[in-house]
Amino acid sequence: MQRAKPVHPPASRSTAVPGALNARPEPAVQGVSAVRRDPAIDLVRFICLLLVVAAHCMMVSPVLHRDGKVTTQNTLMEQSWFTPVVWVLMIVPLFFVLGGVTGLQSWRRLKERGGSGFDFAQLRLLRLVRPAMALLAIMWAGLWLALLSGVDPQVIQLMTTGAAMPLWFLAAYLTAQVSIPLMARLHQRAPLPTLGVLVALIITVDSLRGAVPVLAFVNMVFVWCAVQQLGFLMADGFFEHRSRTWLVGAIIVSNLLLGLVTGVGVYPGNMVVNINPPNLCLLLLAISQTATLQLLGKGIRWIASVRWVQTIIAVAGRRSMTIYLWHLPLLVGMSGLLLLTDFPKPADGTAEWWWARIPVFFAVVALLVPVVLLLGRLENRPTAASHARGPSRTAVTTAAVVVLIPVADAALNGLTLALLGGGAACFALAVLLLGRVPTPVLPQSGRDGTPSRGGKRPTLPAQGLRANLES
Question: Are 364 and 334 in contact (CB under 8 A)?
């Protein structure tokens, strides 16, 4: 019997984030290479998450009128100074860049262990669908109880609509992450041409969206996959090997182009308007943010090395999806319930209203703590006995379709109470289809590090390694 060849750590620089955001490799774990979590990326993701929560606290403003009608106002969208500021605060593209960095690393490690694209899709779907299933199910049950208790249907619909806002991101992020095995293969063969084709497709869709408006939603795939490709380039050291002058030039040119296309009226100047459905503006913004991230990498890594900062991002980073999914429903729910009380409600946009954003932010954070403690474990990678078999390819594909249908419906048409319950049922079905992740049987290594005879090649990450580094 021919002796199995040892699995060596790959020699290429593509398994770590080079330069200022470099994830330093650790010693091999039982013959399989490992890459340590990059604290700098975790810190950037944590800061972005805080900015998202803070921005939503400044945007959600329900109003109860004298005739009993309930409306909601987006205060920031009505402020003239907000349009240029949102160019800085619109950090959603950066989420997809970071997801591309960590997603590519995770896929390459999984592939090295013999895993397939369907294994990767299973892990990603479970990572995102399980916490989302809990959100939809709890909201559906809670809102139905509130409706049966006599709460005004307008307030119920307001709170239901609030839950739909994070779902467009979930749909886009799921699509981009599940596509990583395919996009990584294209990236390996021709990285810049692949990005160029995606840019051409984005521009084509944007050019036709006026004649066929529904076509604009196709860019939910093209734009976010293109932004994710920037993360691939960062993971492979493309931005690391560019000079500071080149990086500054990329920031200036991308923002000048952004100013040009918005200034002549080709696209709206408000990035919030441009985000759903996304367009070329989000890719230009992502280029600027990626170059900026590379420029600031050393300072970010230094901050991330502080002990108490590491503790915070270690806790919050593992529960980022729970925080993202729940912060807005909690904010909307809290605001809706306050409408039913005599609690002082300053007029929208006044100085008192702006000062009130501070306690509102900390109230949302306080509400998130028990939610994260109770439901955050749903983000953990489920494991099973080593003899358990994973789901079939048909089951994984069916689960992806079952998840994307209600999410896409909510993103396109808005969320209703009925769709909330239907979405929870679809997500639960997807979790059942995906099953549990088998724990691999790692081969026993000999003295020279080679697997012993009869050792089985693991097809999924070792139990000591996280399959989802972006968490």
Answer: yes
